[in-house]
Amino acid sequence: SSWLMPWLGLSVVWGFSFVFIKVCASYLDPFQTTFGRLSLGALVLLAVLAVQRRKPVTDWRGIKHLAFIALLAQALPFTLFAFAEHHISSVAAGLVNSTMSLWTGLLAIVLLPEERLDRTRGAGLTMGFIGILILLGVWDANFQGNWVAYVSCSLATIGYAVSALWTRKYIAPLGYNPTSAVATQLTLATTMQGLAVLLYSSAPTHWPADGVISLALLGALGTGVALVLNFRII
Question: In angstroms, rounded to a whole number, what is the distance separating the alpha carbons of residues 14 and 7?
Fold first, then answer.
């Protein structure tokens, strides 16, 4: 299938992203980590557009949908995951993130008429959620002691699920170039997050080399390149 290889590549890139977020947590607060990855991702894609001689999306019908996705799929969930990884491991955060496909399945059944619930899908969704709960060890004291972090991750994944369906229903039919659409989306998200940084953050006290490299990779690959792949797959 044409989507399979990009999907596998996206899985690898986003899998490593949780490690990069954890490293960034050693010197940046959640708002700063998110602003850094968004701004770097936006710069990379705007540079690609310049080389390709393409323009970002400028018409209002696209901007309003991309702004909604920027908030729901980037600014808020990236901050929630960055907050969570101050309290739980990158492995745990990645496991919770894997529920995104399950939430998407549930929401698709509710919102998309062509996606109907049958026994196979129902069994698959049920087994998926039970499997994640077992892997996380919800009975463990460590899980119970960090429930706020796990709830934050869960809210982030629900935001991802809603944005995936929103993109499919409202943005994909507009026929935008994926790089143009995502570059615009990230620029909007960076603007939103910049306001949050000005209001709630103070300047970092140190800049460790591994942290700077992790932020660069998180922004360029885990945000810029990954979101273009995600848009193409949807």
Answer: 10
- Provide the whole-model pTM: 0.87
Residues in contact with 31: Cβ distance below 8 Å, sequence separation at least 6, in sequence order: 79, 82, 193, 196, 197, 200, 201
Residue 136 structure tokens: 């996380």
Which of 7, 22, 43 has the alpha carbon at shortest distance from 219? Answer: 43
pLDDT average per 10 residues of sequence, the chain (234 residues):
83 91 96 97 95 94 96 96 94 87 82 75 87 82 81 93 90 93 96 96 93 96 90 82
For Cα atoms 162, 174, 230, give the angle at the middle one, nearest 5 degrees. Answer: 45
- 188-219 burial, b at 16+ Cβ within 10 Å, e below that, comes to bbbebbeebbeeeeeeeeeeeeebeebbebbb
